[in-house]
From TrEMBL:
GO annotations of cellular component type: cytoplasm
Source organism: Tachysurus vachellii
Record PANTHER family: DUAL SPECIFICITY PROTEIN PHOSPHATASE 18 ISOFORM X1, IP21249P
Keyword tags: Hydrolase, Protein phosphatase
Catalytic reaction(s) noted: O-phospho-L-seryl-[protein] + H2O = L-seryl-[protein] + phosphate; O-phospho-L-threonyl-[protein] + H2O = L-threonyl-[protein] + phosphate
Highest taxon listed in the record's lineage: Eukaryota
Record bears the keyword Hydrolase: yes
UniProt-recorded name of the protein: Protein-tyrosine-phosphatase
UniProt keyword annotation of rRNA-binding present: no
Tyrosine-protein phosphatase domain mapped to chain residues: 2-141
Family classification: Belongs to the protein-tyrosine phosphatase family. Non-receptor class dual specificity subfamily.
């Protein structure tokens, strides 16, 4: 069971962590953002669950939930927030990165480095990257991450990025992208 601390009150995980009631209590979780199709929200006293039923597919419109989820995380004054998807690798990190951009004032590049430092296993799908790029452009009027054309790799797992990163200032942790 892996629970990654993003900020003192924001955590990221896969679907197993919210099932551990003792862990939720110990971390002071009062809001769970469940970004899965198949996992139900646990019902614990004093814990609210927000459901974002989006598949982990490049064509899924996760960006439709960026503002609503970011605002909900920001407004959770009662305690900690846990954002989770099935594996804690694609959907939930994308939502956390959107929150960091909107409410912590960081760029997409910085948000990615921030989340990846706490949870090195993140692997957003190409569609979620595109949506985060659009979101960053909407928030800041420019992009800090430049991507090349999609990289064609036969039998590529769906969780691996299909873009190669050309430039991301001060981002040595983006080594899983080809430069």
């Amino acid at each position: 069971m892996s629970l990654s601390k993003i900020t003192p009150s924001l955590f990221l995980s896969g679907a197993d962590a919210p099932l551990n009631r003792a862990l939720m209590t110990r971390k002071g979780i009062t809001l769970i953002v469940n970004v899965t199709l198949s996992h139900s929200c646990p019902t614990y006293p004093g814990v609210e669950c927000v459901r974002v039923a989006v598949p982990d597919l490049p064509s899924a419109r996760l960006s439709e939930h960026f503002d609503r989820v970011a605002a909900r995380i920001h407004n959770n004054q009662a305690g900690g927030t846990l954002v989770h998807c099935a594996a804690g690798m694609s959907r939930s990190p994308a939502l956390v990165m959107a929150y960091l951009m909107k409410y912590k004032g960081v760029t997409l590049c910085q948000a990615h480095n921030w989340v990846r430092q706490s949870r090195p296993s993140i692997r957003l799908n190409a569609g979620f990257w595109d949506q985060l790029l659009d979101y960053e452009k909407r928030l800041y009027g420019k992009n800090t991450v430049k991507v090349a054309a999609p990289v064609e790799v036969p039998k590529m797992p769906k969780m691996m990025p299909r873009h190669s990163l050309r430039e991301c200032p001060k981002s040595p942790r983006l080594s899983w992208f080809r430069r």
